[in-house]
Amino acid sequence: MSATLNTIIIYAKNMQRSAEFYRLHFGFETSGEVVEGLIELTAPKGGTNLLIHQAAKSVKLGQAAVKLMFSVADVAAFKAISAERGLLFGSTHQANGYAFANAKDPDQNNICISSRAYRELN
């Protein structure tokens, strides 16, 4: 038996603000409506969907245990568009045939854009 990862739950202090962040900067689709205590965000071209859940006061946000990595073909172009929308990524790093850059969401969760999925392997 196998399992498929298709949804990630993100705890947020302000659910609507976080949902809007992922809609605006990463193209997720959402009504913004809270249903059963969650705001659902759908990846329009496939991929992993997100659920935004209200964080309890006891939840420590911004832990470095998990980082969401978004695949983009052109890191520099994505950074430029994101900056126009108010999301600033840090320095672009070069790795083994790909580039990546890091930022944080409104609740200080780590996010990354990376061209790793688009690299050419020899």
Explain how this protein is built.
The protein is α/β, with parallel strands linked by helices and 122 residues long. It has 2 domains: 1-58, Signal recognition particle alu RNA binding heterodimer, srp9/1 (2-Layer Sandwich), CATH 3.30.720.120; 62-122, 2,3-Dihydroxybiphenyl 1,2-Dioxygenase, domain 1 (Roll), CATH 3.10.180.10. It has helices spanning 15-26, 75-84; strands at residues 7-12, 38-41, 49-54, 67-71, 93-94, 99-104, 110-114. The strands form 2 sheets. Strands 4-7-6-5 form a 4-stranded mixed β-sheet. It has a 3-stranded mixed β-sheet with strand order 1-3-2, with helices on one face. The model has no long low-confidence stretch (mean pLDDT 90).
Strand content range: 25-35%
CATH superfamily of the largest domain: 2,3-Dihydroxybiphenyl 1,2-Dioxygenase, domain 1
DSSP helical segment count = 2
Helix/strand/pairing category:
alpha/beta
Principal-axis shape equals globular
H/E series: EHEEEHEEE
Number of strands: 7
The CATH architecture of the largest domain is: Roll
How many whole angstroms does the radius of gyration measure? 15 Å
Order of neighbouring strands in the sheet with most strands = 4-7-6-5
Low-confidence stretches: none
The tally of domains stands at: 2
Q: What fold name stands as the CATH topology of the largest domain?
A: 2,3-Dihydroxybiphenyl 1,2-Dioxygenase, domain 1
Q: What is the helical fraction, as a range of percent?
A: 10-25%
How far do the termini sit from each other? Answer: 33 Å
- What's the rounded overall pLDDT mean? 90
